[in-house]
Amino acid sequence: MRNRAAQLALLDRLAEQHAIAAAGGGAKYQQRHRERGRLPVRERIELLLDPDSPFLELSALAAWGTPFTVGATVVTGIGVVSGVEVVVIAHDPTVRGGAMNPYSLRKTLRALEIARVNRLPVVNLVESGGADLPTQADLFVPGGRIFHELTALSAAGVPTVALVFGNSTAGGAYVPGMCDHAVLVDRQAKVFLGGPPLVKMATGEDADDEGLGGADMHSRVSGLSDHFAVDERDALRLGREILTRINWRKLGPPPRGLPEEPRYDPDEILGIVSADTKVPFDPREILARTVDGSDFDEYKPLYGTSLVTGWAQVHGYPVGVLANHRGVLFGEESRKATEFILLANQTDTPLVFLQNTTGYMVGTSYEQAGIVKDGAKMINAVANSTVPHLTINMASSFGAGNYGMSGRAFDPRLMFAWPGAKLAVMGAAQLAGVLSIVGRASAASQGRAFDEEADAARTAAVEAQIEAESDSFYVTARLYDDGIVDPRDTRDVLGMSLSAVHSTTVEGRRGFGVFRM
What we know:
Number of helices: 20
Helix content: 40-55%
Structural class: alpha/beta
Largest sheet: 8 strands, mixed
């Protein structure tokens, strides 16, 4: 009951922040937006997607804990439009006119990266005032990457669509300009490099919005617009129509028949996950409530037992699973993981990493036994594996264990966290303790007295800092993962992710055999 209560409290906290993100600029600006005859961003997305189809929202809490609005003025995610899985990037104009801040940029670039790596078409729902000018120093140079990604997608034959509902000015004008398909809404779309005030200052010309960049002008004169929409619903209809005509085919294999629900209730996961992240739990209990039919074929169950490895299916897709059990990765676990990853690549099987690790084992006997070499083998295998990786931080992801378990630096196709998860170089108490030991040794070497009172204050401050910075909300706010998910939804999140990654080829690395170690 204690575990369940702790998880429910975390989920309440998560729901509260999701509600703040969904509110955008707040009731006042939502009402003003509607009074102008415009749809809120999430209604636009709902009308774009196929009825009753799921939407896997990404980076929902971007910018949490910063001066910027939770959600970072843009909604991104993976959904189905006219039967095609796409990445949706939609501005929220109720937040500072949809202006882009540094977190908006990170969120947009991550969505475009997901589209490129997984070969997913992109639909942009555009209504943005451009850059948030006070933060332009952090936007101008990296912001050009948006245009790079859009053109790279087009060059790779991945369709990109822009539905323009309002402002798309200055650099933002290049979004519809660089997409394969552009739909502009009459009397709302404004696509120009410079608005009337800038034109007046630069050239002395008196111009108006419609003549400079309205939908009618771009449809009749400039040719920028491919489709003229009479209103927002018409634009969304046209967007859906475009997706029906792209003749899209997935390159990865389909699921193996209909999925079988787990034999155990996923709701029970809340009682399995420890309230205290220092207390381990058996990931087999999580898998029994996540994989198809609760059928898990374990690999090397008696060897390297603090890492559980094996084969399963999720929503009909075959997967290999690596899941931490008792936290620490020893040499045996590292070698076991390396072999397993090689086997998955031999059979073109995607890998799911369930993180709950304090890192690789330290100590004289372990160093002498070659833990650095064994850990390096595992990290090497993760880095060079070419099958899709999906990663979920269940509880803890510390030190190089984060790398060995396919953390963000190792480019998992998608990565999520549970609300109680922690991520840092090490636990708060350990890190503060290390600094205390170093300080004490430094004082001894200099022959000066060690200030116990100052050390205690410093230790408390460091622990508080690391606790805050390792918190799942702090981590997801900075886009070190793709979002926090309800543990009970893990199966469906993995299923949607697996479907998305199968839009491109699923092929393991070739050219070497399986090393027996």
